[in-house]
Amino acid sequence: MRPTLPVVGTAVAALVLAAAPAVAAPSTDALISEVYGGGGNSGATLTQDFVELANKGAAPFALDGFSVQYISASPGTTTQWGVTPLTGSIAPGKTFLVAQAKGTGGTVELPAPDATGTIAMSGANGTIALVSGTAPLTCKTAADCAADTRVKDLVGYGSAAVREGTATGALGNTTSASRSAGDTDDNAADFTVGAPTPTNSKGETPGGGNPDPDPDPTPGDKRIHDVQGVTRVSPLVGQKVTNVPGVVTGTRATGDRGFWIQDVTGQDDDPRTSEGVFVYTAGAAPTVAVGDSVLVSGTVAEYRPGGETGSNQTLTEITSPTTITVSKGNPVPAPVVVKNVPAGYLPAPGGSIEQLPLEPARYGLDHFESLEGTLVQVDDARVVGPSNSFGEVWVTVNPDQNRNQRGGTTYTGYDQPNSGRLKIKAVGTLPAANVGDVFAGATVGALEYTNFGGYTLAALTLGTHTSSNLQREITAQQRQTELSVATYNVENLDPSDPQAKFDRLADGVTTNLRGPDVVVLEEIQDNNGATNDGVVAADQTLRKFSDAIVAKGGPRYEWRQIDPENLKDGGEPGGNIRVGFFFNPQRVSFVDRPGGDFKTPVEVVKKNGRAALSVSPGRIDPLNDAWANSRKPLAGEFKFRGRTVFVVANHFNSKGGDEAIHGRNQPPNRSSEVQRGKQAAALKAFTEQIRAVDKGANVVLAGDLNDYQFSPALKTLTGDGNLKALIDTLPATERYSYVFEGNSQTLDHLVVSKNITRLSYDVVHINAEFADQASDHDPQIVRARPSTGDANVDRVVFALEDILDCLES
Hints:
Helix content is 12%, strand content 31%. The protein contains nine helices and 43 strands. The termini are far apart.
C-alpha cells in the first residue's frame, strides 16, 4: 500500500476512473470498525480487549439477536467460536463498543462499553465476526465462513486462517486493526494497523472525551486553491485542513484509490492556482459519487511517483481523509478546454523548479500544473505516441508543434521537448491507436502527474477513435552497383520468442528493407534468452532468424558475431545481448581473419598499402572502461565489387539513470551521456586509425547509439567532418527512428566516412509509430557506392556503373 505521509510515497499504480463510485462492500450498514486484543498485556496502555462496530447506513441498525464471535488464528477440530450476545442498536454514522476480557496490565480504561463479553482475544492473530444469531459458528476455513449467511462481517488479523481476502497485518499490545473506509471483503485492503482508538455510541474515547460530536457541516477556512498554491508544492504540505469544500468530479476504485473534487463557488482569480485536487483514500474504495458536494478534512501531502529520491515532480493530495457529504446529484463543473499551450516547456534555473511561482502563460508544463486535479477537456486529440499494454496513449494539444509527415511530433533539440504532449490513461479498453490517429470530439478527465510520462489526463470519456490509416514504409530496392547496409535493433531476440516475432522481423528485412546486403543487428540474445545459466552462444537465435528470412523469400544470410563474456555487456540479465552482422554472400563477401574474441582488440594494419583489420570480426578496444556493462563495437571487413568497406556494429549504453525531461530538476541531469561520450571517443579513435593508414577508406558506423543527432556523442563522432551522420541529411522533423512518451526521436544511426558521396538514405518506419510492433525501433538503410580510394578512379568507375544502372532499369 502506498505511504500516506505528508510528503510522498514510493510507488505509483495504474489509474482507473469511474463515473460513479465502485461499491465492493457487501454490507452498507453494520460493520466491524476496529479490533484490539492486547488489552492488559505487557506494555499495553489499555486494560481491556475490545471490538468496535460502526453503522455506515442512513438508519439505525438493530443489534438484538446479533453477536460478536471470536476464533483463534489456526483453529483445530475441537476449537470453538467464543460468543458475546448483543442488544440495542447502532445509530447512523456512530460506533458501538464491545468490551472483552480484561488483563492485569495497562493503565487506561475503555470508555463505557455498549456491551461486554469475556472473550480473551489474541493480541497478535485471530478472527472476529459479526453474526446474525447467537449460536456459535461452526466454520473453520475462510471459504466455509464466506458461505455461512449468518456472517454479517468478518475480520482476520495476523496469521488468521479465517479471513476475508488477505488478513490484515499482525497486531500488538499497542496496536489495533482499524477500518479505513468501506468494505471490499479484503481485510488487508480495508484495515490499517495503528494505535487503538475505542469509541462508544456516545462518541466517548478513553478518558471520556468526544472528538467528533456531530460537527456542523460548514466549510473550513481553506479552499482548494489554498491547498494547491502558486508553486508545484503546496504551501500547506504536512498540515491538516478541515472541511475543504468541493464537488466530486471523478472517482478511482482501484490502484491508488481516491476521488477528485473541484471548487465551484469559491474560486480565486489567480491563473496559477488550481481549483481541483485529488483526495487519496489509500486502500479503501471511495464511498462518494460523482456530483456529491462534500467537505473534506485530512492532511495535505505531496506524492512523488517513483519515490522521493527520483527526479519526478509531485502530485498535491489530501490524504487520510474524512468526508462529509452535504448533498448529492449536483452538476459537475464544465471541464477546462486545453489547447495550444505555450511552446515554452519549463523554466531552467539550473536546479529544482518546485518552489518557482508558476507561469502558465509562458510554459506549457506550468499551464498543466495550474490545472492539476481539475476536470479538463481535449478536443480532436491527435495521437503522437502509440497506445500500449497499460491502456495509455500520447496525444498533443499543440497540433502544429514540430509535426512530421506521418502525424507525430519530432524532438528536435534539448530545448524543444514539445510542450503540447499529454498522456491519456483510459478507462476500460483503449482502442489500438497509431501515430496520426485522432480521438475525435471531446476527451474528458482529471489532470494529474504520474510516473512514466508526467502530466496525464485520467480519462472519464474518450473521443471517437479515428484511424489515419498509417502504412508501414517500404524502402527503394538497391541497384546492382549499390551496397546496401541496414541497422536494426530487434529488441531482445532469442529462440524462446514466438515464431510470430521472428516472422514479423523477417518480413521487415525482406519486404520493407528489400533484403539489404549487410544488416547490422542489435539486441541479439543468447540461445536461452534471459535464463541466467552461463550460456553465451547465440547461433540458435541467429539461425532461427535467418531461416525466417528465407521463409519470407529473402536471402540466405550468413552471420558473424563474437560471443560476449557472460553478464558483461549489460541488457536483460542472463540475455547476453550483442551486436552482429547478417550479410548476403551472393552480393558481398566477408573477410575472415581469425583471433577475435571477447577480450582481444581489433587493430588497424596496412596490407598492400591499404588499411585492413588484424582480426575480422573483431571488437574495438573491449577492455576500455568506456564499454563497462555495455555492448562492445564489432568491426568487420567486407568486400563489395572489389572495394573494401569497414562496417562497425554498435550499441551504446542506454539512457538509464537520466532524469526525466519533465522532472523537478531543469535542465535534467543526463548522467548517461558521460559513458556514451567515452564510447564515441573510443569509436572515433578507431576510425582515425583507419584514416591514418588510408584516408580514402570506406567506413560505415551503424547501430543503436542511444543518443540524439544533436547530442555530444554524435558531435564527437562527426565534429571534424571526417564522418557524417546521415540522419542530418533529412528535414529536421523527419529525423526519428523511435517514439518515446510522444516524442518522435532518433537513437539509431548510420554514420559514414566523408568520401562515400554517392548514396541514398532512408529511415524505414515500420514499428515505432504503431501499437502493434515487432520491435520498438525502426530500421535504417543506406544504399551507397563505396569509393575506390582514388577520386580519379572513382570518376571512371562511377561513370561505368551509371551505364550499368541505366541498362538495369
